[in-house]
Amino acid sequence: MANKKAASGRRVEELEREYVIPLRASQHQPSRRRRAGHVLLTVRRFVVRHMKGKPEDVWIDPRLNEHVWEHGIQHIPSRVRVKAIRFEDGLIEVDLLEAE
After folding, report:
1. Of the candidates 81, 77, 21, the residue with the CA atom closest to the CA atom of residue 48
2. How far apart are CA 95 and CA 85, in angstroms?
């Protein structure tokens, strides 16, 4: 978490966190042909709930999208590790974390 001072002297915060988002429920809820899209909605809802943002302010990295769609629309990952960064203007960026 990095705190910065704005030009006016007030504090501006940038929040960075890592999450493991469980996606197992997304495998059972929608029909087979909607699973990958439902996963992306689940990621967006999870990040909004935990980072205190708005759904329209969440930006999902294309690498995360490709990881979800890697095995097609029906076969989704059971969990995904992401890094979420909330900027001072309210925008939340969600990136895929590489396996170390």
Report:
1. 21
2. 8
Pairing type for strands 92-96 and 79-86 reads: antiparallel
Domain containing 23 equals 13-96
Buried/exposed 64-91: b ≥16 CB within 10 Å, e otherwise: bbebbeeeeeeebbeebbbbbbbeeeee
Secondary element (H or E) of residue 63 = helix 62-68
- Listing DSSP states for 17-43 in one string gives EEEEEE-HHHHHSS-GGGHHHHHHHHH
Note whether residue 82 is domain-resident: yes
- Token reading at 100: 């170390």
- Domains contained in the chain, number: 1
Question: What's the predicted TM-score (pTM) here?
Answer: 0.82
Residue 6 resides in a domain: no
CA–CA distance, 80 with 94 (Å, rounded to integer): 11
List pLDDT tens digits, range 52-93: 999 999 999 999 999 999 999 999 999 999 999 999 999 999
